[in-house]
Specification:
123 residues; 2 helices; 22% helix
Length: 123
């Protein structure tokens, strides 16, 4: 008798629906790409290609890749998060003055997606 009553309840739930909560809406899944491996060579190539003329006394100091908070896809709402690598570009002028420029290179795997002067700014 108890089995019959339990089956009746199960059948009623299946027919009418026991769940009162609506199904959750799908959310945009954010995926983190893997950290860049050859970032030092990639950044060095970037400077070689974008700065005209000789770069005498150039010194690059690379920070370790850090998890970025900016979306690396074309849409700002969803996509994948990349990595940011801080770099100090130092040059020594003819008058022995040293100029230091800090830049942040935003990566999606091995590809540079942007360069900013401040880490808080997304490319």
């Amino acid at each position: 008798m108890k089995i019959a009553a339990a089956l009746a309840v199960v059948a009623a739930c299946l027919t009418v629906g026991c769940a009162t909560r609506p199904a959750p809406e799908p959310t945009a899944q954010v995926v983190r790409t893997r950290a860049p491996i050859n970032y030092e060579q990639t950044i060095t190539n970037f400077y070689d290609l974008t700065i005209a003329g000789p770069q005498k006394g150039r010194e690059l100091e690379f920070g370790a890749p850090e998890r970025g908070t900016c979306s690396m896809s074309s849409r700002n709402q969803s996509g994948h998060l990349g990595w940011v690598v801080p770099v100090q570009y130092k040059t020594k002028g003819a008058d022995s003055r040293v100029t230091i420029t800090s830049q942040f290179f935003w990566f999606s795997e091995e590809t540079i997606k942007g360069v900013t002067r401040r880490m808080e700014l997304c490319p």
